[in-house]
Specification:
By secondary structure, this protein is an all-alpha fold. It has helices at residues 9-12, 16-42, 47-65, 69-84, 95-116, 120-128, 136-155, 157-165, 167-172, 177-199, 209-218, 222-247, 251-270. It has 13 helices and no strands.
Length: 279
């Protein structure tokens, strides 16, 4: 291992791959923690695993039929989010349906790869992604998603707060619970599907719900949780990337460890009982 001196960091940022990685992490740090807050508030932690497998299915089909695999993967994620939304209000929530979707998707993906003769390593490579392999088109997709997520949260902040607090209270308050749930799940699904190109499927948690968990431990309202999650996300991504470059280590694991450390410190500071009021 060759340790990079701090004086070499500016020269590293002259490399296009490092510049794209830094910009991708900045964009991701702004909006993916907001998605994490939605995941935490709706208690849909299994959604990220299901979406990753759905994205793999879309990628496999895309490679088979000659359509942009990344685009088809995102479309499949959006369709899945919309399809499971009506089940959100049922007893047990979305854990069961998401587990079903995850199992079915991976089976179909492997079957498609076998039938089509597509190189499985290529499909999994697109899904796992790499920070330094981020393309300009991936940055455009992330930027568009960031704008959409920020716009939705700004426009329907109060309705989202009621939805996360209690579906029945939200419905009694005039919130279109079904439509808002569907919109939220579609945004969550597409955002996770897009972010796997940035950090890889196994490291999405560092950009999504770890900052959200940190924010939940430090705040008492949804608005403060959103703001804190973004601050933690941007700070964690920045520190993680700089530290990875300095130590000449893979950025993904370092990002997870930095985000995890911030979450652990927040728990030690405030304990595990601080739950946001979502007002």
């Amino acid at each position: 291992m060759i340790v990079i001196l701090a004086s070499d960091l500016p020269r590293l940022f002259e490399l296009p791959a490092v510049q794209r990685a830094a910009l991708g992490l900045l964009i991701g740090g702004v909006f993916l923690p907001l998605v994490g807050v939605l995941i935490v508030g709706l208690d849909i932690f299994p959604v990220r695993f299901a979406v990753m497998h759905v994205a793999l299915l879309g990628i496999a089909v895309g490679l088979w039929i000659g359509v942009s695999p990344t685009t088809l993967g995102l479309v499949c994620c959006a369709v899945t989010g919309a399809a499971v939304a009506p089940l959100a209000g049922r007893p047990g929530g979305l854990a069961g349906p998401m587990g079903f979707v995850m199992t079915l998707s991976i089976a179909l993906a492997l079957l498609v790869l076998s039938i089509s003769g597509v190189n499985a390593n290529g499909a999994f490579g697109l899904l796992w992604g790499s920070i330094f392999a981020v393309r300009p088109v991936d940055l455009v997709v992330l930027a568009v998603l960031a704008v959409v997520v920020l716009a939705v949260i700004a426009r329907w902040h109060r309705a989202i707060a009621l939805l996360l607090f209690d579906r029945e209270i939200a419905a009694c308050s005039g919130v279109r619970v079904g439509a808002l749930t569907m919109l939220t799940l579609v945004l969550v699904s597409v955002s996770i599907g897009a972010s796997v190109r940035l950090t890889g499927a196994l490291l999405v948690d560092a950009l999504t719900f770890l900052p959200a968990l940190t924010a939940r431990a430090l705040t008492n309202s949804l608005r403060a949780m959103f703001i804190t999650a973004v601050v933690v996300g941007v700070a964690g991504n920045t520190i993680g990337l700089l530290l990875a470059l300095e130590l000449d280590q893979p950025p993904g694991p370092v990002l997870v460890l930095v985000s995890g450390a911030l979450t652990a410190v927040s728990y030690m500071k405030r304990g595990f009982t601080n739950v946001p009021s979502f007002h």
